[in-house]
Write a structure and sequence with these properties.
The chain has helices at 4-17, 31-44, 57-64, 68-80, 108-114, 133-139, 177-182, 185-191, 210-216, and strands at 53-55, 84-87, 91-94, 99-102, 119-130, 146-156, 159-169, 196-207, 223-233, 238-247, 251-254. Strand 2 (84-87) and strand 3 (91-94) form a beta hairpin. The longest helix is centred in the N-terminal third of the chain and has 14 residues, at 4-17. It has two domains: 4-94, Winged helix-like DNA-binding domain superfamily/Winged helix DNA-binding domain (Arc Repressor Mutant, subunit A); 99-254, Chorismate lyase-like (Chorismate lyase), CATH 3.40.1410.10. The strands form three sheets. The chain has a six-stranded antiparallel beta sheet. By secondary structure, it is α+β, with helices and mostly antiparallel strands. Helix 2 (31-44) packs across helix 4.
Length: 261
């Protein structure tokens, strides 16, 4: 019979054996930062997956030839990012990789699926309502016109990532809950013959409300990323207005900046 401690140690060695650490002790970059970056890279590439054990600080220090304070600082930086968790009697464990989304006209579902994040969706609302002034202005409709409102909770690896609220012209598509839970909204629009061309988007941040915190498994007042987007088809017609909130601990937007000539 293999003792629990032996099983844990075997799992730890197996997980870390798959990571090729290359720490440059002559570099001006602090060793804790080098270790944190290499562990984060292994998590993002799927070399270390959710549930993998890294062991405790003593094991990691001995294995890597680093001091315990150095290892502790590296681990804490990834705990703060939500990538690792410390479990009493077990050690340090991988939770999940942070979602990094390119800032382009794409569906969150498609981005998560392409990144191997295993997206799942729970439909919270799917009905027709009169458009508010803000929604009507975004979609180029008269205030009070009927629009379709969709509210969905998007998760990866069983953990909520984003609360999505979208408004669509009622003549655009007829989304049903089953399809909304199995694919992305933009994919449904493309299947219906809608050609997405461009969007106007605003990204911001604010504190989570009580309701948002409960949905996203965060504390009230936790930092959330926000996004408002109006998408247009190839004729210039507004086809979707979205207001989304994302867990800042699990989600980032990636920008590519070019120098203007």
């Amino acid at each position: 019979m293999v003792a629990t401690g032996d099983r844990t140690r075997a799992a730890t060695v197996s997980a870390l054996d798959s990571v090729d650490f290359a720490l440059d002790r002559s570099s001006p970059v602090p060793l804790y930062y080098q270790l944190a970056q290499q562990l984060e890279g292994a998590i993002e590439r799927g070399i270390l997956g959710p549930g993998d054990l890294l062991g405790n600080e003593v094991d990691l220090s001995a294995r890597l030839g680093l001091s315990r304070p150095t290892v502790r600082q590296a681990i804490q930086s990834l705990v703060d990012k939500g990538l690792l968790v410390r479990r009493r009697g077990v050690g340090t464990q991988v939770v999940h990789s942070q979602v990094k989304r390119p800032l382009e006209l794409s569906s969150l579902y498609d981005d998560l699926q392409s990144a191997g994040q295993g997206p799942t969706t729970r439909v919270l609302r799917n009905e027709r309502i009169p458009a508010s002034a803000a929604v009507a202005a975004a979609l180029g409709l008269a205030e009070g016109s009927e629009v379709t409102v969709l509210e969905r909770l998007r998760s990866t690896h069983g953990q909520p990532v984003a609360f999505l609220c979208n408004y669509l012209p009622v003549t655009l598509i007829q989304p049903d809950d089953a399809r909304l839970e199995s694919t992305g909204l933009y994919r449904m629009m493309r299947t219906a013959g809608v050609t997405l061309h461009s969007a106007r988007q605003t990204v911001g941040a604010r504190a989570a409300t009580v309701e948002e915190a409960a949905l996203l498994d965060e504390k009230e007042g936790a930092a959330l990323l926000t996004m408002q987007r109006t998408a247009y088809d190839d004729t210039g017609r507004p086809v979707e207005y979205g207001t989304h909130v994302y867990r800042a601990s699990r989600y980032t937007f990636d920008f590519q900046l070019l120098v203007r000539p």
